[in-house]
Amino acid sequence: MSPAKPAKEAWRISPDKTALVVIDMQKMFVETDICVGARDLVPKINELAAMCRKVKIPVIFVSARSDLSDPGLRADMDVRPPSEISARRGIDGIRFCDGLDVTPDDFIIPKKRYSALIRGSSVLEQLLRGLGKDSFIICGVLTDVCVGTTTTDGMMLGFKVFLPGDLTATASEERQKVALQVYDRFARITTFSEVMKELSALATAVV
């Protein structure tokens, strides 16, 4: 007898109930040495976002916009002084990375904390609930920081989270592998091709 599969394996993406959440695809993360392979995510994220728009799934771009006036304990976790972190971000650093397709119909929301869903960080939860969504596809950077904490909080708030592992990136391949093993507890870990296949079927059904 084959082992029983968790119920999340039966989750399905639905235009009525699902949103796409793209985390921190900004110059300061993508166009630096912070994330391994982050630049390679851009074409695939663009393709995914385009397909989501086609099937009427809202696309939400979340960006780190903290001015470090309320850093919490982050300063205690980093050996770099706040001035260096702030300088690295700067005006140019917080912009979306080159080549990322953001349209006028997409939502763009700032966040103050790693998780976009922790209280006081952003309006993501209110936006998702206001749109009538109970699930979201998440992608972007860093897998084990902002993507991961948003995933965890999403599950704890009752959202079904679809996490295509090959649409996220972090500081090393080892950290990426471990992160996906950890977040399998909080999301349905999937792939770009699997999500696109499901969305393509929805697009065909719409036609």
Tally of DSSP β-strands? 7
CATH topology title: Rossmann fold
CATH homology-level superfamily:
Isochorismatase-like
Q: What kind of assembly state do the chains in view correspond to? A: single chain
From the alpha-carbon coordinates, what is the Rg to the nearest angstrom? 17 Å
Largest sheet, strands/sense/barrel: 7 strands, parallel
| CATH-defined architecture | 3-Layer(aba) Sandwich
Supply the number of structural domains.
Answer: 1
The secondary-structure element order is EHHEHHEHEHEEHEH
CATH class type: Alpha Beta
User: Are there runs of 5+ residues with pLDDT below 50, and where?
Assistant: 82-87
| Percentage of residues assigned to helices | 40-55%
| Distance between the ends | 40 Å
Quickly count the helices.
8
Report strand %.
15-25%
The dominant shape is globular
Quote the average pLDDT: 90
Give the class from helix and strand content and strand pairing.
alpha/beta
Concise summary:
This protein is α/β, with parallel strands linked by helices and 207 residues long. It has a single domain, classed as Isochorismatase-like (Rossmann fold, 3-Layer(aba) Sandwich), CATH 3.40.50.
Structure description:
The chain has 207 residues and is α/β, with parallel strands linked by helices. It has a single domain, classed as Isochorismatase-like (Rossmann fold, 3-Layer(aba) Sandwich). Helices cover 41% and strands 16% of the residues. The protein is built from 8 helices and 7 strands; from the N terminus they run βααβααβαβαββαβα. Strands 1, 2, 3, 4, 5, 6 and 7 form a 7-stranded parallel sheet that branches. Helix 6 links the parallel strand 4 and strand 5. The chain is globular, with a radius of gyration of 17 Å. The relative contact order is 0.20. About 3% of the residues have low confidence.
